[in-house]
Design goal:
Order of helices and strands: HHEEEHHHE
CATH superfamily of the largest domain: Band 7 domain
Number of strands: 4
Distance between the termini: 112 Å
Number of domains: 2
Structural class: alpha+beta
Largest sheet: 4 strands, antiparallel
Helix content: 55-70%
Oligomer: single chain
CATH topology of the largest domain: Tetrahydropterin Synthase, Chain A
CATH architecture of the largest domain: 2-Layer Sandwich
Radius of gyration: 36 Å
CATH class of the largest domain: Alpha Beta
Length: 172
């Protein structure tokens, strides 16, 4: 019976060697996984920096914005516009608007002045189709502003107006 314990002790060391081998391979796998994770982060970080323009020779957005601010900006005041708004009931609603146009150079101002009747006509046609509910809130006014800018740029093409600025809006 002395032989039986000897055989069991022989199996334990071989089992212990297998356990050590598994522990070593699990450590290797852990280091490989950590290395792959770090490598993936480096690659993703580099791709993100590339797409955000860190490696381009173009000026940064802040620099481009600063260069635009330095440009001379001129304003053209349009005459007051008063129109009646479209309504489904018998009650009349009126809109009075004072508009100023932002332009970047004097040549654009010189193109707007002779085309002013066409510009005012385009504005009045659009404004007369508006309802009081179209002017509710800042989103409504923003849509009106964008549409007026589109119409004036169409009227004075190839010149461009940079912005339409409301000086006064009165809905009555």
């Amino acid at each position: 019976m002395a032989k039986k314990p000897a055989k069991d002790t022989e199996k334990e060391p071989s089992g212990a060697e297998d356990g050590e081998g598994e522990g070593g391979s699990s450590k290797k796998k852990l280091f490989i996984m950590i290395g792959a994770g770090v490598g993936a982060l480096v690659v993703l970080g580099g791709a993100g920096a590339f797409f955000m323009g860190a490696f381009s020779s173009k000026p940064a957005v802040a620099d481009a914005h600063h260069a635009e601010v330095v440009k001379t900006t001129m304003y053209v005041d349009l005459p007051d516009i008063t129109v009646n708004l479209s309504s489904t009931d018998q009650r009349a609603a009126f809109l009075k608007v004072k508009v100023s146009l932002e332009v970047s150079d004097k040549a654009t101002v010189e193109k707007i002045t002779p085309a002013l009747p066409r510009v005012l006509d385009a504005f009045q046609i659009y404004l007369r189709e508006l309802r009081v509910s179209d002017l509710d809130g800042s989103a409504g006014l923003y849509r009106v502003k964008e549409e007026l800018q589109r119409r004036i740029n169409t009227a004075i093409h190839p010149a461009r107006v940079d912005a339409v600025l409301f000086k006064e809006i009165l809905v009555q």
